[in-house]
Amino acid sequence: MVRVVACYKWVLDDADIRVSADGSVDTSRAKGKISDYEKGSIQAAVQLAGDCDGTPVGLTFGSDDAQASLKDALSRGLEEAYWAHGDTAGADGAVTAAVLAGAVRKIDDASLVVCAEGSADDFARQTGPRLAANLGYPCVSSVVEASISGSTLTAKRRVDNTLEIVEVELPAVVCVRPEFAEAPIPGIKAVMAARKKPTTEFDAADLDGGSPRVEVTATKGAVVERKGIQIQEDTPEATAHALVVALQKEGVL
Q1: pLDDT score of 252 more than 80
Q2: Is residue 177 exposed (0-12), middle (13-18) or buried (19+ Cβ within 10 Å)?
Q3: pLDDT digits over 204-217, tens only?
Q4: Nearest to residue 166, comparing CAs of 135, 139, 134?
Q5: What is the pLDDT of residues 6-51, one digit of tens each?
Q6: How far apart, in whole angstroms, are the C-alpha atoms of residue 127 and residue 124?
């Protein structure tokens, strides 16, 4: 049976990350979660699997803490989960894509791989295209709609202000934008059922991720200074006019 593979990433919850005035980043209290973008790509994989009577499965590359993601992923409609277990410290898009490609090759009948356009932590938008290059599959990015008929995938891409419709033959990799699918919150039954679904662990060291091309030397948070300008006029029209004038003065418009 055809498998539709949803690649997802376990990231730190940005709501728990604190940025100091000097730009230093405190992640000591941040818990892990499936990236919000990848929750959407999981839902996209579930929908596309329905088009071809396939089986939606999940795939993640991560260290020990990523194991906690498996039950959450399975509660979102996936039938199986695969975990490439390895140290992700220093792993850039090239290493991640190579490891994921190695894992996809081990999954029987993996005819479609679905990635998010980018992950919530760095949004580098490299993993999907690099994964396709490693596999030798065509890649369709910036996808907002897609469907499968037979062995043909038809996708609608949003490129700036333009919509482009393309067709590719499977196997393929698609990178979906957040508007492709809204990820529902799993219900109690789905969460309970996830405990009985199969998981498979791969040793990432056996998947030949290679060496990173990029080295992160420092991380600083962006600090935005807000002026706190308040606009209070008698009518909505006057308020809108005053807002436009203020934005023009700031050089925004």
Answers
A1: no
A2: buried
A3: 999 988 888 888 88
A4: 139
A5: 999 999 888 888 888 788 888 888 899 998 899 999 999 999 999 9
A6: 8
Q: How many CB atoms lie within 10 A of CB 50?
A: 14
| pLDDT one-digit tens code per residue, 108-130 | 999 999 999 988 888 888 999 99
**How does DSSP assign the chain, residue by residue?**
--EEEEE--EEE-GGG-EE-TTS-EE-TTPPEEE-HHHHHHHHHHHHHHHHTT-EEEEEEEE-GGGGGHHHHHHTTT-SEEEEEES--TT--HHHHHHHHHHHHHTSTTEEEEEEESS-TTT----HHHHHHHHHT--EEEEEEEEEEETTEEEEEEEETTEEEEEEEESSEEEEE-GGG-PPPPPPHHHHHHHTTS-EEEEEGGGG-----S----------PPP-------SSHHHHHHHHHHHHHHTT--
Q: Read off the pTM.
A: 0.84
